[in-house]
Amino acid sequence: MPTTLLKFLPLLLLFSLLTACRQEPVVQTFASPEYGIHTALWWNMDNERIPEIELTQEMGFGWIKQNFAWRDIEGIKKGEYNTYHPDRIVDEVNAAGLKLVVRLDRPPLWALPQDRPLFENGPPADYEDFRDYCTWLASRYKGRIHAYQVWNEPNLDREWNNESPDAVAYVELLRVCAEGIRSADSTAIIISAALAPTGTYDDKVTPDDVFLQQMYDAGASDYFDILGVNAPGYAAPPEASPEEVADPANPYGGHRVFAFRHVEDIRAIMVENGDGAKQIAIMEMGWVTNDPHGATDQTLEVLHNGYSWYAVDEATQADYLVRAYQYAEENWSPWIGLMTTIFLADTAWTPEANEQWWWSITLPDGTHRPAFDALSTMPKNQD
């Protein structure tokens, strides 16, 4: 190295360090963190009350996440809307002093491509139909639906008409919906689709970090306010680093995506793409339990074998969920925003038919699992 360059090396290193550390301050759309619970209100409303709203209040959580499936609102034909369920949910959530984030996906049959097999979820044939739906929804519930999650896990083929995941196409879908929402309600928060944490890369699945970079390359940053992620904890405690979880000497699965702290990998991609001023919202987080809680003689391993390798007992589920919120508040502030636990159970779920039964913090009859009580008594940053 030339002597002249050696003379200035300390200054060059200092300049590089300052440049690397210089970021825009994080915009505090959410408090860091805020507390959400994923509910199943749609078919679970009686004439007098919505128990899940009362449970959310009992927990001291401020946000309810609810799926607003497109097919359940505009299901018969374009422009005909069934508003009974969404009206009731929006009215009751607001009356309770809670905030509502809704997930938008599940097109009606009339909107799906007609030249290929039908699947549970996937993009419509005409993206403008989705724009119209997003615009109508944001207009009807202006100021009362507080945030919108645009799709879920498009990096999986099962959420994309059983076709190969396509980040460019997803960004286009995000764009038309975001433009529609913003034209109708400029105060609404737009959250990008939460991606499935996976290291698999083939024609059916794209790793979440790869898919996110593809989204940025396609210009996604202009069309969301908050980055959505899913963060199941798998077998590891919430404080375990991705490196620790990836170490095959540890019993955590051998891949960094199996860490709750894989969220930090996603955050690094945001910063690398100049998007560090935005927050992250965790749209699904939890630990699956193998405790049947007296409801079945069959086990998770028998009923839903794919989940059994990372199941924990109910006491550990409760402990890990509380520690996840604590870790985020202590280490991810100010860039962590909404953190959404799964689930308050649907009254129709059974342990045999629904793997969600094993993730939930209540049972369909309203019985509390230990996690519900632990989250209810957990100190919160608003306290």
Task: Describe this protein's structure.
This protein has 383 residues and is α/β, with parallel strands linked by helices. The chain has one domain: Glycosidases (TIM Barrel), CATH 3.20.20.80. It contains 14 helices and eight strands. It has helices spanning 3-21, 51-59, 70-73, 84-95, 127-140, 167-184, 208-217, 242-246, 262-272, 300-303, 305-308, 314-331, 356-359, 370-377, and strands at 34-38, 63-67, 99-104, 147-152, 189-194, 227-232, 280-286, 336-341. It has an eight-stranded parallel β-sheet. Helix 6 links the parallel strand 4 (147-152) and strand 5 (189-194). Helix 5 (127-140) packs parallel to helix 6, helix 6 crosses helix 7 and helix 12 runs parallel beside helix 14. The N and C termini lie far apart (57 Å).
